[in-house]
Amino acid sequence: MKQTRWLVVAAGFVVLTTSHFAVAAAGLATRDLNPILQPIYLPTLAPVKEENGWLLAHSLYITNTFQEKSKNGESLVIDAENYRYELGLSYRKDNWLTQINIPFMANSGGELDGLIDGWHDFFGLPEGDRDDFSKDDINIEYVRDSIVEYSQDKSSSGLGDLSIALGHQLSDGPAYFVGIELPTGSESDYSGNEAIDLAIWVTHEKQIDAEMTVYGLLGLSFPGDDGSLEGLIVDEIWVAQVGLDYRFNDKLIGTAQFDFHSATIEDSDLKAFGNSLQIQLGLGFLQLFENHRLDLFFSEDIMVGTAPDITFGARLIRDF
To answer: Which residue segments constitute the domains of the chain, with CATH numbers given?
Structure first.
């Protein structure tokens, strides 16, 4: 596990330190959408304009998760469907960058269990113990040393934790960011940890040729110690994202991206709280609407059990 962590971090450093092109709207603003961990602030690749002005992004993620694990005094069940909408607004003034992200999230039993079963069967992906549980129910519970640390058996929804980031891009170089996540969400509706989280990160991209661009993010998150997981969250979480955009033509871009983060819960032996690695595959439609870009993508956990089974995503960006 440690080797995987440092390989991904090293790959991020390679992308971030060897390129000399301006940051643009490359990459997908994806992250681990484990419903227990969503209140934790994990920096992501957000679209950034190359010229002065504004970008407005609407993002929708639908995640279906089934996990059941027990080990060394810990037990975890996640049987849920999560919906997350994010309103993102970014502004560039010369080399200064500002980003605001407002999430709204909902947990439910969902409607996609049958579809996910068919998806896994079609691609030969592991099912785990999905077939042993009722379809389209919600059941989330984390027990540690006989203490119930987290429990949800009813649907919920609410405003999540708003985040604000300020960045500065070096001339023809990387962009450095510092961000804060505010406790606008609520522990009672499972949309926030009622704590202030901080993060720092750097992003960069490199254009290989007219068709291909590589990009990456490397960051460090400092979660606040509050909410339902108070006393259990680690002090620091490494985050890395590395990806490739391939331009098929002036209207279509293909994206492959890897997302990594280090362990989130102190001294846990469960995969869901350890190092996580996912892959995203997507298509970007550049001229579907005037001044808009539409991205459609899905995410799978490469390290099985370290992230939700699958996430379907859509993002609409407007340049103005």
So the answer is: 2-319 (2.40.160.40)
